[in-house]
Amino acid sequence: MAVVEAHRLTRNFGGLTAVEDLSLEMSEGEVLAFLGPNGAGKTTTIRMLSGIISPTTGYAVVDGRRTGENVERLHEIIGLLTETPGFYDALNARQNLEYFAGFYDGLNVDRQIEKYLKITGLWERRDGKVGTFSKGMKQRLALARALLHEPKIIFLDEPTAALDPEAAREVREMIKTLSGEGRTVFISTHNLAEAEELCNRIAVVQTHLLALDTPAGLRQRLFRRQVVVQMDGLPESITELVKGLPFVRDAESSENRLVVELNDPENNRPELIKHIVEAGGRIMAVSEQQHSLEEVYMSLMRENSEYG
Predict the structure, then answer these.
(1) Which of the 8 DSSP states describes residue 126?
(2) Looking at residue 278, which CATH number applies to its domain?
(3) C-beta atoms surrounding 229 within 10 Å
(4) Which long-range contacts (CB under 8 A, 24 or more apart) does 172-177 make?
């Protein structure tokens, strides 16, 4: 069952279209990465899904409720980390969280504040004025604020922005824990490695949705599977032999390396190896060509630039 739904969401600001005709669904416990360049509509989408702004056209449903119908109830069940979180700088970390905790009924405030200040590594700074905090510390405090009321659906806009590598790793581990608890997490990020590490599926956007799939599915969609044969010496005769095999679509050689595209990689690979060995080739290793998420992302950006 979908717990987050976007139905042809469009948002215009004057003559500018920030988000265009966006449709997607998220299931319970899923972690979805929303990936795109600056100005792609990522923050605007989060603001629509969390009920902060209304779409120009289309609608969103979160936990079975339209986001524009009961915003107060919506904010009770979601957690939101904004791109530029605001705090009361003259108050300390604990006082800030006490204030925001007051918006939720039935909350054990002291317990929740202690829990999330410890998780975010800020417990020892609980009495420090937030105005003295670094940007990274404020980001961690904002994450604690977003989780205080144990929301089942969490929207995170650049959650590791401005964090040092150790703090960013701690936040990623926290997101994994949230997912393991069955929470649904929507992450807007520029960090490709972070998206691949954390997320079940990845949505690539540039105002409109370019692709939505698992990392493996995106690779298969954009790149044909290729077998890499590493050899101890690669005579031209072996390359020509491979190119002439009826089940080979394409083959390229570079130094002692053959990259071969097969009609049926699973079934043709043993036959390919057999032909090479029978022709006197000395095979050192056989693997599958790996494409990074960055290659996938850049390919989608190029496609959109050419055909958009």
Answers:
(1) T
(2) 3.30.70.100
(3) 24
(4) 172/197, 172/198, 174/119, 174/120, 174/143, 175/31
Nearest Cα neighbor of 96 from 70, 79, 117 is 117
Report d(CA 272, CA 245) in Å as an integer: 8
What is the per-residue pLDDT across 248-291, written as a single tens digit (0 to 9) for each?
988 888 889 998 888 888 889 999 999 999 999 999 999 887 77
Q: What is the per-residue pLDDT across 114-156, written as a single tens digit (0 to 9) for each? A: 999 998 889 999 999 999 998 888 888 999 999 999 999 999 9
Q: Which one, of 211, 212, 172, 167, lies nearest residue 194 by Cα?
A: 172
270 and 185 belong to one structural domain: no
Average of pLDDT values for 69-97?
A: 91
**Domain presence at residue 278:** yes
Q: How many CB atoms lie within 10 A of CB 218?
A: 23
Range of the domain at 246: 224-288
Least confident of 10-19, 148-157, 214-223: 214-223
For tokens 């960055």, the residue is 294
Name the token pair of 268: 């043709």
